């Protein structure tokens, strides 16, 4: 059910960013803005460590268990069907390739152009399905606050239905086969602890200011 659409996604991810060096391949992508660009919402030190140490490590550990033949496939295809990878390596693959996808997606779905709002069909569907943008936002924040331990909160879409869901560790909507990710917030402590310490609620609330809704709204229309 996903095959055709998720292959198209890869192209869209690469084609709709301003930085042409971004590709959701098997390497560490460059950030599409400077480390300081998301201040004061996300501080430069957190960005530097998060991208240069954490994300880099996921890429290295993912590549340890990938053959050249595997890399000819799209990353999303492997996330949804890791059976092409030796059984003993599948956990290492899913944890780290999940991490690589999630962070690559996270960087391009944040923007220094702050306080964006969803537009077009996405704005309409959020209003229709959640009641209002503010109700959706509250549900997203609540899901992040209630989530126990490390993980991610996602807004995803499956067959036209929008849903807020959180997953443990580096899992994501492709690995869980529950639709396409739209917005995803990293709620591992490494994403916010330097600036927000234990205040995850404040971090997620502020994170809403840097969501790249322009990108996500366009991507949503492409997925329909
Ligand atoms: Mn992270």
SSE series:
HHHHHHHEEEHHH
- Figure out the total of helices: 10
CATH names the topology of the largest domain as minor pseudopilin epsh fold
Q: How far is it from the N-terminal to the C-terminal residue, by CA?
A: 13 Å
Main beta sheet strand tally, sense and closure: 3 strands, antiparallel
Rg from C-alpha positions?
Answer: 16 Å
Estimate nothing, just give the exact number of structural domains.
2
Bound molecules: manganese (II) ion
Average pLDDT number: 89
CATH superfamily of the largest domain: Iron/manganese superoxide dismutase, C-terminal domain
Write the CATH architecture name of the largest domain: 3-Layer(bab) Sandwich
């Amino acid at each position: 059910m996903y095959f055709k659409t998720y292959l198209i996604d890869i192209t869209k991810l690469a084609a709709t960013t301003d930085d042409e060096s971004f590709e959701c391949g098997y390497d560490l992508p460059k950030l599409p803005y400077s480390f300081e660009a998301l201040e004061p919402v996300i501080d430069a030190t957190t960005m530097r460590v998060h991208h240069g140490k954490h994300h880099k490590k996921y890429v290295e550990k993912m590549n340890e268990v990938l053959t050249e033949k595997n890399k000819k496939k799209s990353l999303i295809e492997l996330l949804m069907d890791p059976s092409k990878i030796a059984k003993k390596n599948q956990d290492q693959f899913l944890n780290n390739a999940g991490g690589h996808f999630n962070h690559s997606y996270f960087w391009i779905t944040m923007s220094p152009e702050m306080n964006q709002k969803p537009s077009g069909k996405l704005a309409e569907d959020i209003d229709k399905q959640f009641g209002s943008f503010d109700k959706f936002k509250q549900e997203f924040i609540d899901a992040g606050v209630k989530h126990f331990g490390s993980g991610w909160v996602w807004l995803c879409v499956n067959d036209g239905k929008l849903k807020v869901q959180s997953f443990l560790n580096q899992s994501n909507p492709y690995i869980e086969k529950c639709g396409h990710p739209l917005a995803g917030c990293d709620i591992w402590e490494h994403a916010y602890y330097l600036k927000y310490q234990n205040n995850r609620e404040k971090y997620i609330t502020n994170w809403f200011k840097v969501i790249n809704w322009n990108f996500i709204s366009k991507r949503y229309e492409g997925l329909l």
